Amino acid sequence: MIVSVVLCSVIFLGLGYFLYGKWLGKKVELDPKRPTPAQTMADGKDFVPASPFLLLGQHFSAIAAAGPIVGPILAGLWFGWVPALLWILLGSVFVGGPHDFLSLVASIRHKASSIGSLAKTYLSKRIERLFLIFIWFTLIYVIIAFTDITAQSFKAVSGDMVFGPAVVFSSLLYLVLGLVLGIILRFTKIPLSLATLLFLPLVFLVIWWGTKLPPSVTEFLSKVPIKGWEAGLLFYCFIASIIPVWLLLQPRGYLGGWFLYCTMAVALLGALFGGFSIQYPAFHLEGLRSALNGKLIFPILFITVACGACSGFHAIVSTGTTSKQLRNEKDARPVGYGAMILEGVVAVLALATVMMLSPSDAILRSDPNVVYASGLARYMGLIGIHPGFALSFALLAFSTFVYDTLDVATRLARYILQELLGWEVTRKRALATLITLTIPLAFLLLAKEKAYLVAWPIFGSSNQLMAGLTLLLVSVWLLRSGKNFLPAFLPMVFITFFTVWSLFLQVLPIFQFLFSTSRIPLRPDAWISGICGAILLILALWMIGEAIALIRASKIKA
What percent of the chain has pLDDT over 70? Predict the structure, then answer.
């Protein structure tokens, strides 16, 4: 029964937070009396102290997005639910959790410095530049993958029912609600609790409203091509990246966090009390046999689950925006480690929507967002909620998670590019954002339908490798601080090994083509994955080599 798997998983993740997370907090000596950068460097734009509950919602919705939904579903479909579940549980507690928490603490101990700045402090100027370039490329792939996934939701169809227009309409009103909430919280003295009571029901109201669109509006929105929605989403990213965080990022992230909590509650209650049995294979033998086609369970499993177990993107968020808003060091554990544990729960619940399906179910041929939304709709149907509202709710929830990552990723990429070019954060925001979004726009306009399937392997590889490099940097910081470095070093070795292996597999087809006499033409996606994978692999190996050389030469104190 699904209930047994989900219940045991939640207990395991909870114990990880209360036991291992607490132990990590003691090792880095969290001090609630030590001022944080949000207090000492407050500027009303980027450095803005936030309550832990508000910040947890914003941080959680920023890091969660589609990663812990799409990744586990794809991994479950390819390899079976058992391998995916084991990596989600062990990865969240012992790899992803320490990665997120320790990178956040390292940042607030260094004036909210980014990962790149920390690399300069503890390694070298050259590694800092390489790190920043690597991060920027990683964020580009985050934007590409999640923009396309969101656009797929805008064209969603289930059977004879078209749900995309409802999701588009509700999404637009949801963003307007975020703007209004930001203005109210900024310029009035309304308590956050009262604002939540007022605005959260409005979110559900706009979902209901989206299902009641006139046929003419539905027909008009249905005719918009997916490339048009992708361009529109990138325009949204441009605007969201340059306006103050209090106007949209914080309030929309807070509403998104509540929406995510509601969605998790629906999924958790449905999985626990729905009485659904496990029908999908624990080990998908056909998927395991497809090793010759590139889907080796080792290492492809790890880069496919991606954010559901560990994500380098989380460190970029932690050190880019969250560390500038953390008002007390004691909040680092619930915001940093706790958010990763919650993401592990999201990943388990997403995987459960695959576990309940028969291998012959037609829904398995749909996109992961539809698989996930259909599972939630089945849960909501248990209490008599209309299928139309249920599917619209689930698809908007999915899109909402991605919004929260899209604008954060764009803002962070803008920070990185400004740092690389020596531009101050307060200057040339629009130009840096425009340059950042040019590559995703070109990629998405030129790529075929479902570009996220092309981008996902590189996204997963770069994301996991980013986590490994961050853990390497955190290990050096812990060494120099005289603290136990093994909680960062051991997962660093593990995740770096498997990610470098996966990148090598993605680069291999190009070498086989170049040095083969048969010269069988490669698909465009193989060229894209191979070239980008080669760039990322060279950057990563270069940084690792530089770091090892510095340590061996005793240029840093261990």
Answer: 92
Q: Which two tokens stand for residue 513?
A: 């083509």
Q: What DSSP element (H or E) covers 158?
A: strand 157-158
Distance CA 313, CA 65 (A): 11
Q: What is the predicted pLDDT for the residue at 355?
A: 95
455 in any annotated domain: no
Residues spanned by the domain of 299: 2-450
Distance CA(238)–CA(411), nearest Å, equals: 8
Two structure tokens written together for 185: 């919280």
Select from 460, 458, 480, 462 the least CA-distant residue to 470.
462
**CB 466, CB 99: distance < 8 Å:** no
Which residues, other chains included, contact 113 with Cβ-Cβ below 8 Å and sequence gap of 6+? 107, 121, 319
148 contact partners, CB below 8 Å, separation of at least 6: 230, 444, 447, 450, 451, 452, 455
Q: What CATH number does the domain containing 263 carry?
A: 1.20.1740
Return the axis-axis angle of helices 97-108 and 312-320, rounded to nearest 10°.
20
Residue 473 lies in a domain: no
Q: What is the pLDDT of residue 255?
A: 83
The number of folded domains in the chain is 1
Task: Tell me if 327 sits within 8 A of 38, measured CB to CB.
Answer: yes
pLDDT at 94: 97
Residue 397 and residue 413: Cα distance in Å, rounded?
A: 25
Nearest to 443 by CA among 145, 149, 236, 67: 145
Listed in sequence order, the residues at least 6 apart from 303 whose beta carbon sits closer than 8 Å to its beta carbon are 457, 460, 461, 463, 464, 498, 499, 502
The DSSP element (H or E) to which 78 belongs, if any, is: helix 67-79
Q: Is 92 exposed, middle or buried (0-12, 13-18, 19+ CB in 10 A)?
A: buried
- Residue among 2, 68, 6, 41 at smallest CA distance from 314: 68
Q: Is 162 helix (H, G, I), strand (E, B) or coil?
A: strand
Say how far apart CA 36 and CA 330 lie, in whole Å.
Answer: 10
Cα–Cα nearest to 182, from 62, 265, 303, 58 = 58
- pLDDT class for 350, splitting at 50, 70, 90? very high
Over 50: is that where the pLDDT of 6 sits? yes
DSSP class per residue in 172-206: HHHHHHHHHHHHHHHHS---HHHHHHHHHHHHHHH
What is the rounded distance in angstroms from the CA atom of residue 299 to the CA atom of residue 494?
11
pLDDT digits (tens, 9 = 90+) for 385-427: 877 778 777 877 777 667 767 887 898 889 888 888 888 766 7
Backbone Cα Rg of the chain: 22
Q: How far is CA 161 from CA 157, 165, 228, 229, 522, in A?
A: 6, 11, 22, 20, 37
167 lies in a domain?
A: yes
pTM of the model: 0.85
In this predicted structure, which of 210-214, 300-304, 326-330 has the lowest mean pLDDT?
Answer: 210-214
**Is residue 553 assigned to a domain?**
no
Question: How far is the C-alpha of 347 from the C-alpha of 71, rounded, in Å?
Answer: 8
Indicate the DSSP class of residue 326: B
